[in-house]
Amino acid sequence: MSEELRVLLVEDSEEDSLLLIRELRRGGYKLAHMRVETAESMRRALQDCEWDVVLSDYRMPSFDAPGALQVLHESGQDIPFIIVSGKIGEDLAVAAMKSGASDYLMKGNLARLVPVMERELREAEERRTHRLTQEAVRRGKAEWESVFDSVSDLIIITDADGVVSRCNGRVKAYFPGGYGAIIGRRIDEIFFGSEQPEGKLFRFLHSVQSEADEDIRFPNLSGWYNVASYPMRTEGSDRPNLVFIIKDITKRREVEEEKRTSDRELLTLYAVAFRLQYTKGVDKVMGDLLFQLHNMLQMDFSCIHLFDHDRLRMRASLGLSPSFEKAMKTLSKETQWTTLAQAGRPFLGEEPDARFPARAKKAAIEMELHSWCTVPLKIGQEVMGVMTVGTLSGRSYSDRDVFLLCSIAGQLAVLIDNYSLYDKMKEKADELYRSKMELKENLQKVKRANIELGRLNTAKNNFIGIASHELKTPITSIMGGVEFLLKYSGIQMTPEQHNIFVSVYEGTVQLRKLVEDLLSISRIEAQGPLAQKKPASLVRLCREVHDLFALPLSERHIKVEISGEDLLVPVDEAFAMLAVRNLLENAIKFTPDGGCVRLSGRVLKQAQLKEMTLTLRSFYPSFPNNIAATGKYYLLQVCDNGIGIPADERTRVFEKFYGVGDIDHHSSGATAFMSKGSGLGLSIVRGIMDAHEGAVWVEEAEGGGSVFSLLFPME
């Protein structure tokens, strides 16, 4: 059957009110409820109806929980007041509780609502019952009895002779007989039995307020207690009664003991960690660690074993008898001790047993070993060894002791592993130092070789420059003489003589071209990057180069088309003209008679250039790092419809002295112009474009032939 409940809701949110109502109904209550949002409406509700409980939000637009508490207090009604808030700080909640709130809970934890409601309703009913009871007796006496019995300490009142006349309800928690067990008996006898030790509590009368200086234990009770006594004077009596307040401090003593134990453990761990910072070698550190354990944990003997392959070898010890140390010095893999150590778990005992090797067990008994504990030294699952400690007294090792020893052993294992790594690192460092010295020596050799190569390169360039200049004069004389004999001398020659002079002339032309190419390469390598560039029209340069080839173009009926954006581009004009000349010469050479060569120029933006990354990286793997970073570039292209270049040779054509195919496979070999070149022309073009911080590459033209592209930065 549902219990009727009248609830006054101090809430501005109808939805939250419905949630509270639903939760209470789910708890089995039949509700009568009203929701108010202001102080005035709450006053009217308290005046008009009787309520079992008030549920209030903490903060509302025009009202809050402290204000609602004030209204409730003004009404004089004793109704449970419970705060139900979505968010309330602990300080606000405490302040509300101090102001009279019964409890508080969060809207997100309404599961507490029904239990809290039941408790508060129960307590409210108890309060109402208590008030009705107090109407039959004096209010002051009832209040005193309530306070007296609710105190958590044991309060005993005796007369001047120590006979118990009264006590609080706490006596039931300590004496099964309750009041009857102590009323009328002497307090000395109750707590100490028939004989109280001389000088103990209750043996004297108290004239002033006093408290025991130290904690005490009573034979007839378990735990620790603190006793304070106060004189209590009553009307009509010359001798004061005594009030004893006996406080149970067992939990406090347990906490203090726990704190002392924890402090000892922390101090031990700190001391161990400090010792483990030494850099005097692992054996020295292990010895220091054992010494520290003896001081901090009252050990009588200890030792550390490390695995050496399958054996356990003792590396440090303290307090062992010579016979025991000798017996435990080296343990083979067949011993039970080694098997237990390999398992990586602690093992311990109260006396030497079968787990000890036979000789070690005998030696342990002789040195009166009692309790002992062995913990593993391991990192992860790798067991490096074990640490064993023991005492000659009756002390036993608890789980807490084992845990502490395992923690210390873990730190020691890390240190041992670090020392091992340090030794390895030291070996590697020595090896690295030797490699560094060898590298330094090799770098010196390379440096000397580079200096020698630089000197040889300078000598080579000087030789090429001098030789080329010296060769140009005789070559010019030879060409002029042969050309005069062939064209202007009028000398009658046999066909054989004429062919000989033609061959001499063509060979001299090739020699002159080779000398010019060598001079160009020497200039490019000597000059390096072009610091002095001037704006020039590349379209105009193309037309000037075209005029140089007017005769061979007319002989072979090759058409040349020049188009594009006529803009000023910063270039070295002489080098730019040489690059265009070499490309146009190659285009004419590899284009069939009656063919067409097209020269065109246009501006490329940086975004357009990025679209060509895949093509350019086959020629420049570091693209775009090899070219100048700028917003715009000028692209000059020379396109022919000749024999083309195989895909696997396109990147190699820019190497020095590399030629594509055989002259017999060229478009025509009928004129002197078509003779095979030196293989330096495209290498020169590559050098010119590198000096301009630009690029050159070749692709296949539509319909056959090749397209050579020159990329010039415009800024």
TrEMBL record:
Q: Which residues form a coiled coil?
A: 422-449
Recorded GO terms, molecular function?
phosphorelay sensor kinase activity
Every Response regulatory domain range: 6-122
**One Pfam family linked to the record:** Response_reg
Keyword Nucleus on entry = no
What does the UniProt keyword field contain? Coiled coil, Kinase, Phosphoprotein, Transferase, Two-component regulatory system
Question: What reaction gets catalysed by this protein?
Answer: ATP + protein L-histidine = ADP + protein N-phospho-L-histidine
According to its UniProt record, the EC number is: 2.7.13.3
Give the modified residues of type 4-aspartylphosphate: D57
What name does this protein carry? histidine kinase
